[in-house]
Amino acid sequence: MNGATRTRLEATLAALDPKARRRLSQRAATLQREARAEVRAQRRKGFRRAGPQPDDALHEWMLWALLQDGAGEPAEAPAEDDEAAAHEDERQGVVLSAARGAAEVLVGEETILAAIAPRLLAEQATLIAVGDEVTLVRRAEDRWELQRVAPRRSRLSRPDPQDPLKERVIAANVDRVVAVVAATTPPLRVGLLDRLLVAARRGGVALTVVVNKLDLADAARRVELDELLAPYEALQVAVHRVSASTGEGLDALRRSLGGALCVLVGASGVGKSSLLNALEPTLAAQTGEVSEAVGKGRHTTTRSTLYRLADGGRIIDTPGVRAFGLWRVGLDELNEAFPDVAELAPDCRYGDCRHLDEGEADCGVRRAAAEGRLSAPRLLGYQRIARSLLAEQG
Ligand SMILES: Nc1nc2c(ncn2[C@@H]2O[C@H](COP(=O)(O)OP(=O)(O)OP(=O)(O)O)[C@@H](O)[C@H]2O)c(=O)[nH]1
Ligand SMILES: [Mg+2]
Ligand SMILES: [Zn+2]
Question: I need a surface site. Which of 28, 336, 350, 369 has the fewest CB within 10 A?
């Protein structure tokens, strides 16, 4: 929490009457106990939970409890006009796109460009994300300010590429992450799919895989793709094989996405924007040639944007990603995204086995891979992410 928030919380705490203070201190003690149990259950070295740590003073936990009650919010400036008028000048909407300091917000059928309240810019741990449900307040005839963000139901996040200690929310309140890969080029990297699966699960969102550019795949490549994708289908991840160019497979995809809010994610040049245009030909999102330049970081789509489809569905198109860092993911979350690996862990001799190398004797997971009961790419995929998580934890 920042200094201003802390000052407000301390003031609130100091103003409490003895009875309220006692109640708060009991609640804080409960929170602290729960946190201690949570950290114990993690049993991971270096695990840090959000908020105060179990060994922090009870005072910190009391401030934390107050923060949960919303006491950290600055008091709203008193309305200049009367209540009714103030309410007339408030609107609820959904963020279509956001840039530094301003957001395009869909309010009913109208798109409003609103300045983001300076308080939010300063205090929000993570900036406004596409898909956020927000409240706008009118500041002048033609000037709106984004004042509040509703709690997010789900999110797709990764560490901010510029500041890895900050969360970057790519899309908020989405129902489905659609991982787009290309049948031929750019090359399909299973590692990116694995990471998107972990991030989607972590954010409480279902994953769909779309293999685009099927028109470019010959029979042999199609068989290869089937083999690569079989483990995901076995995990109940929906896999669609489509071509934005010929329209093959698009009807089934459109049906399966239904009226959901989806976010398209994948490498640059796989055809995310082309897919969007193919699903809704009136949109004309900008697409680009796959060229040498792609490898040098040229992206056609440069800002995440939410588009509406005629059937009521909504799709967020995002700029291509090259790598996908994982936000607050530990081995437990990794296991959730690799249930085929995790279900073999009881066969390992040691309960804390990480299934990484020869140093870990009698590993049931590696044995299963050696005997062909677990596919080698799945084990490798698991190990790659597990190693990077352990390296991050230091
Ligand atoms: N043959 C073929 N080409 C496709 C298909 N879909 C897209 N393309 C081409 O692939 C190139 C890249 O498409 P985009 O839609 O711009 O890719 P993107 O994923 O949005 O790329 P970024 O915005 O940079 O992340 C364009 O030249 C498209 O014409 C397809 O189904 N078949
Ligand atoms: Mg694009
Ligand atoms: Zn093991």
Answer: 350
